Amino acid sequence: MNLSLNHFVPQKRKGVITRQIQGELLVFDPESNKAHCLNAVSARVWQLCDGKRTVAQITHALKENPAVCADDGVIWLALRQLKKAGLLSNSTPPPLGARRLSRREAGTMLGKTALLVVPLISSVVVPTPAEAASCLPCGSICLSGGKCCSPCTCGVQGINLVCL
Fold it and tell me: What's the pTM value of the predicted model, to 2 decimals?
């Protein structure tokens, strides 16, 4: 298949886990150890990126949902965010003359409904099991019941709880 510059392909990695939760799509990539939360617009754009659709076709598909006010600028914004998150395997700049929106511009343009229609992606690095189970070194601020490294224990020093 000969892909034109306006066709986008999702990043396909072995073991990627996706879950739909309350209108958002969670994507966990164990290879990079990152989790991404895509809002409804970003998730739909990512799902429509199959290597066959153009930006115009993705825009048209999104406009089938009356709650989404999508134009090419919004789609290009979503594509930039998806590429930055590592969820697209190819990337091309928008064609000359294409509207290049920032999230702020999209939010201003769309008004109060912006949170519903502006593509948003939040990404976090997930700690490894060893990091999540690690202890706090002596001198660290801890919470009651915190895991201080041996031989320290969580105790009061002045007004703070500290590994002593």
Answer: 0.62
